[in-house]
Amino acid sequence: MKTFVVTVFVVLEATASYSAVLTETATPAFTWSGPYLGVDGGASSLNGDFASGTGATASEDFNGGLVGGFLGYNFQFDNVVLGVEGNLEYNWNDKGFSAANVGTDVAGAVRARVGYAFDSALIYGAAGWTATRGFVHLPGGDEEGKTFNGYTVGQASTIC
Predict the structure, then answer these.
(1) What are 132-158's pLDDT values in tens digits?
(2) What proportions of the chain, in percent to the nearest 5, are helix, strand and coil?
(3) Spatial separation of the C-alpha atoms in residues 31 and 71, rounded to whole Å
(4) Residue 37 pairs with which residues in a beta bridge?
(5) Positive or negative CA dihedral for 112, 118, 122, 126?
């Protein structure tokens, strides 16, 4: 009888341990790995300093709206998240200035991200390259344009 009780106890204990292993592996953890994309929109503001060939100078504020999209891909290694992302927007930042229309229209950026994940929360920093196209519409239909570019740096947190 003692042998039977010990055998039943060992079998039941092994079954409980095996079911605990199955339960742990069957529930996937949240992961930040994979692609993402979206749409963005909002307000934009720009300050421009201008000088003409005659020596006149001015500083103007340009306020408008923007709409665009973004996409990226993350790779998660334990709690560390590495990623790359990009965005492209259209801006309505223009203003009349000395018989010309001046502003920006298309802007975009490409960034690398490094973050730390706390399950479905992510704290990250990003850095990369950004550019925007500035323009001057002159009377008579002439247009001058230039691409302004530089670096972008930031940090943020996201909760899913």
Answers:
(1) 998 888 888 788 889 999 999 999 999
(2) 15, 70, 15
(3) 17
(4) 71
(5) negative
| pLDDT tens per residue across span 24-41 | 544 457 899 999 999 999
> pLDDT digits over 102-117, tens only?
888 899 999 999 999 9
Chain mean pLDDT for the chain: 82
> In the chain, where are the structural domains located?
34-159
76 vs 34: CA distance, rounded Å: 9
Say which amino acid occupies 48. G
**CA-CA distances (angstroms) from residue 112 to 44, 79, 127, 149, 151?**
23, 17, 6, 17, 12
Q: CATH topology for 34-159?
A: Porin (2.40.160)
CA torsion, ordered 14, 17, 19, 23, to nearest 10 deg: -170
What number of residues does the chain have? 160
Which residues are registered as beta bridge partners of 158? 122
CB atoms within 10 A of CB 126: 19
Higher pLDDT, 59 or 155: 155
What is the torsional sign of CA 160, 153, 38, 64? positive
Q: How many angstroms separate the CA atoms of 151 and 148, rounded?
A: 11
Residue (of 134, 120, 136, 117) closest to 52 by Cα position:
136
